[in-house]
Amino acid sequence: MDHFNYHGGELHAEDVPLARIAAEVGTPVYVYSAATLTRHFGLFRQALDWTDHLVCFAVKSNSNLAVLKLLGDLGAGMDVVSGGEYLRAKAAGVPGDKIVFSGVGKTLAEMRLAIEGGIRQFNIESEPEMRALSELAASMGAAVPVAIRVNPDVDAKTHEKIATGKSENKFGIPIAKARQVYAEAASLPGLRVVGVDVHIGSQLTDLEPYRAAYDKVAELTRALRADGHVISRLDLGGGLGIPYRRDNNAPPLPIEYGQVIRETVGDLGCEIEIEPGRNITGNAGVLLASVIWLKEGEGRDFLIVDAAMNDLLRPAIYGAHHDIVPVIEAAPGAAVQPFDVVGPVCESGDTFQKGAELPLLAAGDLVAFRSAGAYGAVMASEYNSRPLVPEVLVSGDQFAVIRARPTFEEMLARDSIPAWL
Ligand SMILES: *Cc1c(COP(=O)(O)O)cnc(C)c1O
């Protein structure tokens, strides 16, 4: 459920007509709903209310400071994958002891930043990283809490570019090798082993891969305890999918996911961490765009909009689908026709949808790309020297620009021409 609905024939974000935001901020623009973010976060908390837990929001899905502040104020921890994300979480007021640092390529500078600023746990992805982190922490007089990310070799049954839990993926250490790596971790002076970490992929629409992975984590936890390790936390990753189409089967709900966690690892007495991203932010955002031209092609008509692949990359890189809807609701029974919805960027990949069934629209009309709150603005670029897409947060009947569109002057000022040129 989200808070983007038609009222009086006009698409709203909560109580604000999207047309008003377009008029004041311009298009393209991302619009997020605070009520939807709050609701989705609450569903994960509720799903784990049977145990000690921390819901660590995956910052990479939407890293706007206002979004992080909203979730942090609700009690969310944060899962970060870079020094920049760590600094964003801190700047949003999230304390270091609620921040988990994941990612396969943490640099020494990033590790130092997090040790100095405070960190709940590092999720270690490889042995070289583990040794380097220990050495650095020890040199700083610290012993940092760590979980080791294991790769359970489970097929997440999702898009290959967002599957992370198969042995061919770059993530984690093979679960078969885990006991040996934990033994070394326990011997290193700069580390304090606290848990086990796993994350098998994104946009999972089936709970069985989770069940398979978490069963393996439970078995490993018992073995590690038998080896003498204190395993008090399990970080079970993120990845629960969202419905991208109104009409298709909805993925499992957070409450059902929480039940699988309870059934697989619930008896171990561990504090449970999860790292949902997309499920919290995805359907809490739309990308609002204007029609520039309607272009009649041969055998197909193009709707050229002012949003492009640089603003919303998912269709171009994953073939992802976003429902596209008119902001002014079509009259009941109004004729629809197929359009290829495309952006202005000079790439054929700049196609959002082929044959989208839409009412007849004209230049200047507004459309919304739904389910765009996750992996949308964070992947945006200025390709074709298009200004970085702005972001707006709505709450009830108020809205605020939470990232302004840069001016062309600001964009040009970032470059410099060397004196010798
Ligand atoms: C991307 C990622 C997540 C979040 O995935 P979602 O599909 O957005 O829930 C969580 N943990 C790690 C380690 C990730 O890389």
From TrEMBL:
Positions annotated to bind pyridoxal 5'-phosphate: 239, 275-278, 375
PROSITE patterns: ODR_DC_2_1 (PS00878), ODR_DC_2_2 (PS00879)
Cofactors that this protein relies on: pyridoxal 5'-phosphate
Chain residues that bind substrate: 278, 314, 318, 347, 375
GO molecular function: diaminopimelate decarboxylase activity; pyridoxal phosphate binding
Residue stretches making up the Orn/DAP/Arg decarboxylase 2 N-terminal domain: 36-281
Pathway named in the protein's UniProt entry: Amino-acid biosynthesis; L-lysine biosynthesis via DAP pathway; L-lysine from DL-2,6-diaminopimelate: step 1/1
Residues the record marks as active site: 346 (proton donor)
Keywords: Amino-acid biosynthesis, Decarboxylase, Lyase, Lysine biosynthesis, Pyridoxal phosphate
One of the GO biological process terms: lysine biosynthetic process via diaminopimelate
InterPro entries: Ala_racemase/Decarboxylase_C (IPR009006), DAP_deCOOHase_LysA (IPR002986), De-COase2_C (IPR022643), De-COase2_CS (IPR022657), De-COase2_N (IPR022644), De-COase2_pyr-phos_BS (IPR022653), Orn/DAP/Arg_de-COase (IPR000183), PLP-binding_barrel (IPR029066)
Record PTM N6-(pyridoxal phosphate)lysine, positions in chain: 60
Domain Orn/DAP/Arg decarboxylase 2 C-terminal per the UniProt entry, residue ranges: 30-373
UniProt EC number: 4.1.1.20
The reaction(s) this protein catalyses: meso-2,6-diaminopimelate + H(+) = L-lysine + CO2
Function: Specifically catalyzes the decarboxylation of meso-diaminopimelate (meso-DAP) to L-lysine.
Family: Belongs to the Orn/Lys/Arg decarboxylase class-II family. LysA subfamily.
Assembly information from the UniProt record: Homodimer.
Name by which UniProt lists this protein: Diaminopimelate decarboxylase
Organism: Paracoccus alcaliphilus
Recorded name of the encoding gene: lysA
